[in-house]
Amino acid sequence: MSEATDLRDTAAIDIAVDTAPVAARAEPPAVRFWREFRQSPSAVVALALFVLIALAAIFAPWITPQDPYDLRQLNILDGRLPPMSQAMDGSTYWLGTDDQGRDMLSAIIYGLRISLGIGAMSTLIAILIGGSLGLIAAFYGGRLETLIMRVVDLQLSFPAILVALILLAVLGRGVDKVLIALIIVQWAYYARTIRGQALVERRKEYIEAARCLALSDRRILFRHLLPNCLPPVIVIGTVQVANAIALEATLSFLGVGVPITEPSLGLLISNGYSYMLSGDYWISFFPGLALLVAIVAINIVGDQLRDVLNPRLRR
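The chain above was modelled as a monomer; its predicted structure follows.
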């Protein structure tokens, strides 16, 4: 009786061991991703904060108490009011006003809209351009790869801020000009990253199998090779969004970025910089704080994405 019981227990343990990996493999990728991502409480808080900032930027026209672009809503008599001051019409300026009488809370939310939009759009387009060139360079090799990578090396040999300043000096000010400059500055990062990953993936069996099946180069590149090169690109892209926002803010602070009619966070900081010594700190402090919070939140999320998507770091 005891021997039969031991055999049943041993069989039950073997069945549990055999079915455990199957159950783990049956877990949907999205569920597994979120389970590993939420292991870092700071990353979850940063993600929630970034989503809140993004939603505020998207719905800015509906949630802000004032449209900072509408001159009819501005009153010069309300200029440089400190936080929690009362307006001429009885409303409250929670973060004060700037020298033109604009509500700083409204200006910051609209500034976030421009800064986040430029950062995200420039990063996405740079990924498309740099990723395509990196895939082509790794897949075909030869002189084409040498030409592309020499251009990438030349691009990366110059500081990003210097290249952006030269481009904007030629193109002029404007949201579209800043977008073009940031795309040109960023694409080389993704070309080098995807090329390195694609060189590793190109030697694997599934690529050889696809070639043996006489699949077209386009299908091999974008249906088989590209999906396996995306994890490091997602991580770098997340971090580069923060870098693009910081670079755009720097350019606008220097006066070569977005025009004054469409102020981003960098331009808002620049507008209040001259009033810092006179005690009107809030004109620059609150836009700078919003910029800092957005960049830190994106970087924390990107750092956790690196830990989750990198198989070597996965526990």
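Confidence is low (pLDDT under 50) at residues 1-24.
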